[in-house]
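Data's thin. Show one?
=====
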Amino acid sequence: MTADRPAVAPATPGPATAGRARTLHRLRHHHRRVPAASAAKVFALLAAVRIAGAVSLPLMVLSVGLSAAVVAVLDRAEWAAAGLRRFRLLPALAGTGLVVLAYADTVFATRAGFGRGADNWTFLVPGLFRQMAPGQPVVIGTAMVLCMGFLVPLVEEVCYRGVLYDAVERTRGPFAAIAVTSAGWALVHLGDYGLNPFNARVICGVLPSVFAMGVALGVCRAWTGSALASAVAQGTANLLLLAWVLWAL
């Protein structure tokens, strides 16, 4: 026979852990109660950090992390409603085709309107990565493919066509959700193009271009019900855009 072991009391969370849990509970409760107002506050924070990234590389990187963290306003049971779920193949293929066409249209329209130089925002894409690792072409190329094809699409689509889209759709419907998230997504791209250095022609090109791309991504989200399908569509279109820009340079 063995001696009875003394009962071990369950560990209690420390003050910091309990405080974080209470804060998270309040955020989620607020988002469930007033999703549109909650989404507006989330977007205001994201936009401020992302646009400030025009003059600060650390803030640009921070904006990616904040976009991913937006999912914290949802309980796990709410993820599917926000588009964080699997998708059917045929609607996703149709949505991806639409997004690629939208990218192609805006790329050619931008080239026709602004040429192939510093006034065309699409030709500035490689420069975003060259400033991160100057003189290291292998690192730059790897970063471009991983970020443009996988990381950025996943983070952005979960944020914009996921959490924010769902919040607007619940109160205003899918058409408003597509329009609002597309406009917001276009606005935050000023953190990447047109402000540093300031170039009004770049701004005039990037805002309508990214808005049109966002509309196509929003339609993909509506067709599939999945922000993950939109992430696949954006990643595919981004890599095709990147390949074209590098070929055309």
Summary: The CA atoms of residues 100 and 237 lie 5 Å apart. The mean pLDDT is 91.
